[in-house]
Design a protein that fits this description.
heterotrimer; A mainly alpha (64); B alpha+beta (63); C alpha/beta (317); B: 63 residues; alpha+beta; three-stranded antiparallel sheet; 2 helices; elongated; C: 317 residues; alpha/beta; two-stranded antiparallel ribbon; globular
């Protein structure tokens, strides 16, 4: 929890959108939950597109 | 037109070059002083902690 | 064998490394006795043209300071690589980007805009920006291209040795010069002029138990001069930083900012520090953890103070 909280803060400053990082606790017995979370996350990442293509530093979102 | 380049200028802190253009008579027609460097302290100090700025800007010039 | 041929160059640097070399004081005379300086812009008048005229491998050792910020820096790095038998990335900027590398938090256009249009001391009513080529009545002028990202020296050329520090200490410089002169060099790729331990390993401050309920900024606390700064709640990068500086900052009560870079075996200094720092936060309650951690001002800019271009996420592509 502590590492994750701090890491998220750093990643945000480095331009990694917070939607790209997620922490879930899933037990080995919760197969359906695991599948649902992964499916949901993959879908989110697809919508966001590849990380490197967008320069999140630029206010205008340009090439930089 | 003949051009004399003094590149880099030396024995000072920072980068610089001088381009001197000579006319046909061999006299100086015009002379340009250029600074081929920028690091952008003006921008990247934004967002840093105020107490760390003296430590950052001391790296503008270490001479 | 003739005298050693020594070169020193600054790319995107402040000149502090050059001054650190001069800070070996009268020993510079011993250097002059053992070596001829064939290029060193801060101290002697050689031009790029002179270097271009040297045979390949003519320079025995080149100490290269500064990051790669623009096309001229990269061009000269390649030129010096070609002309030098041994190329040393000298100082934090050359090794991992250094302070100029903080620019990788920002967008190139915003940097140019701030420097040439907006800064309080700038007068530029015509909103002129530096151009790589510019026609004047007498001919054409050229300026280097300002890159999108700051790079490290090793991003653009093959580097033989890495000498960390911002700047490296004169004592370490002298030791390394001694090794160069005697030909007693370690294997290629080695870090020279520094320790293989962490700064904490060499720190004389007393350590007990690291449990932090609150992080302090320097003006919020009067620290105990004998106790570990991190234990007192100051963000100090000692646990993940290579020793070799002699604790210049920590001995004066200022926490380490990591200029010597990561210790052996650590790839990403900032990421390692996230782990180290988070582990000393003394709470199990998510809200409290959040509150304690939110008191760290500018974590990324602190953990990657000297190493952003060399980091995994902002490594120049």
């Amino acid at each position: 929890m502590r590492r994750f909280t701090l890491m998220k803060k750093v990643l945000e400053q480095l331009g990694v959108e917070k939607e790209r990082v997620r922490l879930e606790w899933i037990s080995a017995a919760e197969g359906t939950v695991f599948a649902a979370v992964i499916k949901d996350f993959v879908e989110k990442l697809r919508q966001l597109g590849p990380f490197a293509q967008k320069d999140t530093r630029c206010a205008a979102g340009g090439e930089g | 037109m003949k051009k004399i380049s003094i590149d880099p200028i030396t024995r000072l802190e920072g980068h610089g070059k001088i381009e001197i253009f000579l006319n046909d008579a061999g006299g100086v027609e015009n002379c340009y002083f250029q600074i081929p460097e920028l690091r952008g302290f003006e921008k990247f100090c934004e967002g840093r902690a105020a107490e760390d700025v003296p430590q950052i800007v001391s790296r503008i010039c270490g001479v | 064998m003739g005298k050693l041929k020594l070169a020193s160059y600054w790319a995107a640097a402040c000149g502090g490394c050059d001054v650190a070399i001069l800070d070996i004081h009268e020993k510079i005379l011993d250097v002059a006795a053992a070596a001829d300086i064939v290029f060193w812009p801060i101290a002697v008048d050689f031009k790029y043209k002179d270097v271009e005229g040297y045979e390949d491998g003519y320079i025995d050792v080149c100490l290269f300071h500064g990051a790669i910020r623009n096309s001229e820096n990269e061009h000269i790095a390649k030129l010096l690589r070609q002309k030098s038998k041994v190329l040393v990335a000298f100082g934090s900027c050359a090794i991992m980007g250094g302070i100029p590398g903080l620019a990788n938090f920002k967008c190139r256009d915003d940097i140019l805009k701030r420097a040439y249009f907006e800064s309080q001391s700038t007068q530029n009513p015509d909103r002129v920006l530096p151009q790589t080529h510019y026609k004047v009545p007498e001919g054409e002028l050229e300026l280097p291209a300002f890159y999108k990202d700051v790079k490290t020296l090793a991003d653009v050329v093959d580097v033989d040795y890495f000498m960390p520090g911002c700047p490296p200490t004169p004592a370490q410089i002298w030791a390394v010069i001694g090794a160069i002169v005697s030909g007693n060099l370690p294997p290629k790729g080695s870090v020279v002029g520094a320790s293989h331990k962490t700064l904490c390993d060499e720190c004389p401050r007393e350590r007990t138990d690291k449990k932090i309920k609150k992080f302090y900024r320097p003006h919020e606390i009067i620290t105990d001069s004998s106790r570990c700064l991190l234990e007192q709640g100051l963000v100090c990068m000692g646990p993940v930083t290579r020793a070799g500086c002699g604790g210049q900052c920590t001995s004066t009560g200022f926490p380490c900012r990591g200029c010597y870079g990561p210790v052996d075996g650590v790839v990403d200094q900032g990421a390692k520090f996230i782990s180290a720092l988070a582990s000393v936060v003394d709470s199990e309650n998510p809200e409290e953890i959040d509150k304690i951690i939110s008191e760290i001002v500018d974590p990324a800019g602190t953990f990657y103070r000297f190493g952003l271009p060399g980091s995994l996420l902002r490594r120049a592509k």
